Amino acid sequence: MKVLLLGSNGQVGFLLKNLFDDSVDLHAPKRNELDISNQDLVNKIVNKFKPDIIVNAAAYTAVDKAEIEADSAFLVNSEGPKFLAKASYKNNAILIHLSTDYVFSGDIKGEYTELDEVSPKSIYGKTKLEGENAIEKYCEKYIILRTSWVFGE
Prior knowledge:
alpha/beta; about 15% strand; single chain; five-stranded parallel β-sheet
């Protein structure tokens, strides 16, 4: 099995990278090797490596800073997943995408489910939702995982 892991230097990606054993042909390029907001580069890497699975743990995660750097957040969290979805579809790969509970308003008490209405209040949440919507639109085989908090070992 061939796996393309994006965001391998981030908190989640770093731990995921260490879970794969030698039976997996893993390609985990660093951000300077594959910027997911660069469609041509995404296509080039995916077309060359031909992964069975693409795991997107890459994201613009500075929630508060996204309010003043909306363009940067949009490129990574919205455009990047769209480019990955299109490349995934073209190469018949499964796309596993890490998203966030910031796609919800935060107005209800208790836990959200995947069936609850999305209504992000922040730029960060809006960009992550746009990325999810792009994956649903352009990709046939995908899993979107929404996390509320991540932590290391």
